[in-house]
Design a protein that fits this description.
By secondary structure, this protein is of the alpha+beta class. The chain has 4 domains: 84 residues, Uridine Diphospho-n-acetylenolpyruvylglucosamine Reductase, domain 2, CATH 3.30.43.10; 110 residues, Uridine Diphospho-n-acetylenolpyruvylglucosamine Reductase, domain 3 (2-Layer Sandwich), CATH 3.30.465; 107 residues, 2-Layer Sandwich (Alpha-Beta Plaits), CATH 3.30.70; 95 residues, Alpha-Beta Plaits (2-Layer Sandwich), CATH 3.30.70.2740. The chain is built from 17 helices and 17 strands. Bound molecules: flavin-adenine dinucleotide, D-malate and zinc ion. The site of D-malate has 7 residues, from α13 and β15.
Length: 450
């Protein structure tokens, strides 16, 4: 029995949700692919309240799923096995940025877009960005080590982390928030918590690195004659362009789907099979550099270049809205995989072939972060949970030297496949860390290493 009254004594009775209509949004993931049973949702308002909730759940033997914006895509943020949900969304305070140290302290429940806006207001930038910016929380992005659109220039979430405050699974509160540029004093707990997917602790606050905001942007949508030509161009641009900010790939069917779903005008003169979105950001107008870069590579069929913010937004909508447009067809089966750049072109064909043979009636949508070798492979017209398809696709990924999770994490969706990627010794080390910090396994027991 969940001790609802005792939880209410900690966080306030109105912050313990039991009414099915209030709880429903916390039990189903963003895609509708993972749906948990009705449960209790607890919404602490401080780190101390979070610690008290963890203590109570430990003594009552109740498992917890920590939840931020619930935009995670691997079934890690919803209660699939009778857990309660601890929602961190109330911890959404954002302190004034420290412009000298170039950092910002935020609560775990702060939205990514709000943190970006706070940094922009003082001429700085939080360098993690992605389509879910309006709903994903900082705590969730840390827990998943989110990648996103600008990793090739600034690194992922782990590279932005100067400090973290968290309630560990053993009830201890750790707070490493000094934010010193150099601090070589043992294990770096922020790095450990980053990507731990809620299995070691509940993140309640963080200190994040900020970078100078680049005032000038040039963005191009470039159509290529083949995926191999696009990959060759991406290799060249990554080498040549110091101001390269983003390098994304879309295929013709996805571009058309977004255009139709959201009634967007096509920026290109005709439909193309392979489209790359490339962006430069700099202190001076990078338009000439971008135009020269597009002219310098082979296989370009068409290009639309944006320098004003309206056109730039339109080009980005084609990329950002892929996830929403595909989801409107119905909950897709999602793969988030990376490959070494040398095999990326053949990986597209191999993965497509594997899925076509196994599920001939399905549609395969491919897009992703070309600069990182990260493909998002979405399958519609088949089951959104399909163990056999998982095995076939992820086996091909591992055989080609790729990773079964590029940036979304393992969650519950890929926990079965983690041993395909990690050695027994690595898994033993991970379990030892998990069992030390989360000894009763009350935090996300079904996630990552069940
Ligand atoms: P949730 O979904 O709530 O949780 C995710 C995981 O973190 C769960 O295991 C949960 O238990 C744990 N967790 C959440 N908060 C905490 C906390 N405070 N302490 C401890 N554990 C916690 N991801 C990318 O990497 N790159 C992208 O480009 C990208 N684009 C996206 C675009 C769209 C449209 C959508 C819907 C998703 C996208 N995602 C992307 C996936 C998702 O947004 C990220 O995984 C994000 O980091 C999740 O944040 P969240 O707050 O929604 O976390
Ligand atoms: C993206 O890059 O758009 C995402 O990671 C979301 C997805 O895979 O659908
Ligand atoms: Zn992505």
């Amino acid at each position: 029995m969940v001790p609802v009254a005792a939880l209410g004594d900690i966080v306030g009775g109105d912050q313990v949700l039991t009414d099915p209509s209030m709880v429903a949004g916390y039990t189903m993931d963003w895609t509708g692919r993972f749906v948990g049973a009705h449960t209790v949702v607890v919404r602490p308002g401080s780190t101390n309240e979070t610690a008290a909730v963890v203590d109570l759940c430990r003594s009552a033997g109740i498992a917890i799923v920590p939840q931020g914006g619930n935009t995670g895509l691997v079934g890690g943020s919803v209660p699939l096995n009778g857990e309660i949900v601890v929602s961190l969304r109330r911890l959404n305070a954002i302190e004034a940025p420290d412009v000298v140290a170039r950092s910002i302290v935020v609560g775990a429940g702060a939205l990514l877009a709000d943190v970006q806006a706070a940094a922009a207001a003082v001429g700085l930038r939080y360098a993690v960005d992605m389509g879910s910016r309006g709903s994903a929380t900082i705590g969730g992005t840390i827990a998943t080590n989110a990648g996103g659109l600008n990793l090739l220039r600034y690194g992922g979430t782990r590279e932005q982390l100067l400090g973290v405050e968290a309630v560990l699974g053993n009830g201890a509160v750790v707070s490493a928030m000094s934010g010193l540029a150099k601090d070589n004093t043992g294990y770096h707990l922020p790095s450990l918590l980053c990507g731990s997917e809620g299995t070691l602790g509940i993140i309640t606050a963080a200190r994040l690195r900020l970078v100078p905001a680049m005032p000038c942007h040039a963005t191009a949508m470039v159509a290529f004659e083949s995926i191999d030509a696009a990959i060759a161009a991406s290799v060249r641009w990554r080498h040549d362009l110091a101001d390269l900010e983003a390098l994304e790939v879309m295929l013709g069917d996805g571009v058309q789907l977004v255009a139709t779903t959201f009634s967007l005008p096509s920026p290109l003169t005709t439909d193309h099979d392979v489209v790359v979105l490339v962006e430069l950001a700099a202190t001076a107008d990078p338009y000439d550099d971008l135009a020269a870069a597009v002219a310098s590579v082979d296989g370009v069929l068409d290009a639309a270049v944006a320098t004003d913010s309206t056109t730039r937004s339109l080009l980005w909508r084609f990329r950002d809205e892929h996830t929403s447009a595909i989801n409107r067809i119905g909950p897709p089966h999602k793969f988030d995989v990376t490959f070494p750049i040398a095999v990326l072109g053949s990986a597209v064909e191999r993965v497509r072939g594997v899925i076509a043979r196994a599920r001939p009636d399905a549609h395969v949508w491919i897009f992703g972060h070309l600069g990182d070798g990260n493909l998002h492979v979405n399958v519609t017209g088949a089951l959104s949970v399909d163990d056999e398809l998982d095995d076939l696709v992820l086996n091909a990924v591992v055989e080609m030297g790729g990773s079964i999770s590029a940036e979304h994490g393992i969650g519950t969706a890929k926990a079965r496949h983690l041993p395909w990627q990690r050695s027994q010794e690595e898994l033993d080390a991970m379990r030892a860390v998990r069992d030390a910090l989360n000894p009763d396994r009350i935090l996300n027991p079904a996630v990552l290493i069940p």
